[in-house]
Amino acid sequence: MIVHWHRKDLRGVDNRALARAAQADRLVPVFVLDPTILEYASPVRVACLLEALADLRAWYRDRGSDLLVVRGNAREVIPSLAAERDAARVVWNEDYSGLAAERDEAVRAALEEEGIDHESVTDGLHHEPGSISPNEGDHYSVFSYFWKKWRDREKADPAPAPTTDELADLEDASESEANPIPSLSELGFDEPDADPPAVTRDAARERLETFCSDAIYRYADERDVPAAGTTSRLSTHLKWGTIGPREVYVETERALEDAPDEDARESVVAFRRQLAFREFYVHLLAFNPETVTEDFSGYESDLEWRNDPDELAAWRAGETGYPIVDAGMRQLRSEGWVHNRVRMLVASFLTKDLLVDWREGYDWYRHYLADHETSSDVAGWQWAASTGADAQPYFRVFNPTKQGREYDPDAAYIREHVPELEDVPADRIHEWPDLDTEERAELAPDYPEPIVDHANRREEAIATFEDARDEG
DNA sequence: CATGCATTCGC
DNA sequence: CGAATGCAT
């Protein structure tokens, strides 16, 4: 038999390593709850993980098999489990992010020491790092060139799910009873603040099919409007692997065929472009693992971050007095998810207006986002901070007031997340930082005063970045 | 408000 | 080869 080690591929359908192994021998699926990995987790993410595990276990049990859930260090658990069951091979799907890549190297070494065969394949993205590259060098650092090649390259079909016959019969295995999926508190985590949508196969398929039959056709026009609900919301499923990238792409092909007009077709392509962004960032991190903590493109001298603890606390709490910033920061806590335009805008506010080191923002996202991916979040934060691979110019600073007016004209998104402003008219909300203090107190006595003046802070930020550029 | 990246052009 | 071009969530 072959051991399939599940990691960020919590599904039986469209799972490449699983499908390949199934052709060779009976499968024993296993997931390892590794304390060294859990150290970097957070309540909301562990809650998602446990839900997805329970769902996957049920999927296997429906097929007369089971998912073994083992606690311990993967480098010990995987070889010993393979040896105990006399497995011919251990297979898994690649994870290119820093910590996982290190762990996998250690597991490979341990397996080799035991003389156990192993194999890993690319599954979480269409084109693996190194496969899309410029004429010279191993990866692109500018997205548009990457996109041209990604878009035109042929995509694989979804991988078939293993049949009942291909799965090891684990129905009576005492191991299954001996390794119940632990609870959040058993793993030492508090209940999360957020209550994110279900991380299950049914929820993932439902989301994908709903999105690809309707909203995808308006995606190009509406994706930047947080109140419109036109984004796919597939990020959490892609992160945990409750949906496979090939499944998603196939639905975009169907959507393209069914598209009513040229605008709708372009909209489908606009969505694919976002799928490509995700893969672009995986490549960037795979070839630049140090950028998890280091600036991608450094300035001549270190950036003089202000790092004011009170301002950071206000940003975290969603109490900055800038309505759309606060809406985003509160959505983060309540949903474990934030609309992407708002992610960019709150990131700009933290790194530019408040001049707080992007790593602080990254850590906060890492704690609260159910869909946190090292690759996407590091790249996103560094882009916002103008330290990224394809950084926005340092002098480009989001204007939170303009962004609010432009993308949330009716203030529906703001009001949904900032109840203090529920009864304040949209035009007042959008000019909030420019109103008189008395008027603000009258309109929304419980809502905070703006903690900074954006115009001043913008100037100061640009000056700070210029200083870092010139000296050295 | 710049600059660097990736490609294509021109010598 | 270097210059010119197009372009950047």
From TrEMBL:
List of residues binding FAD: 219, 231-235, 271, 274-281
User: Which residues does the annotation list for site: Electron transfer via tryptophanyl radical?
Assistant: 305, 358, 381
**Location of region: Disordered:** 116-136, 154-198
- The Photolyase/cryptochrome alpha/beta domain is annotated at 1-126
A single BP term in Gene Ontology: response to stress
Q: How is the cofactor bound?
A: Binds 1 FAD per subunit.
Q: Where is the composition biased (Basic and acidic residues)?
A: 116-129
Q: Which cofactor does it need?
A: FAD
Q: What is the name of this protein?
A: Deoxyribodipyrimidine photolyase
- Record's keyword terms, sorted: Chromophore, FAD, Flavoprotein, Lyase
Q: Name one GO molecular function term.
A: FAD binding
